Amino acid sequence: MNEDLQYLFDSLGFDNFLKLCKHFEGRSVYFKKVIVKDMLKEKIIFEYSKGENYKNLARKYGYTESWIRCICNGN
Fold this sequence. Notes:
Layout: H1 3-12, H2 14-23, H3 33-49, H4 54-61, H5 65-72
Helix pairs in contact: 1-2, 4-5
């Protein structure tokens, strides 16, 4: 198994990895960076709305506090 597949296997677990393989069997899959970035922004905004602060979010996601503030304020 190559490194990318091993990473998916380790991250998803056997059952979810198998579902993913069956769903995409025979096809190439490409994940655009913007999709991941948008999903991460939504997660950050959600966590902020639930009471998490800029400092903790910055530490958790590896961004600066000012960038987290921009994300949460819609800039």
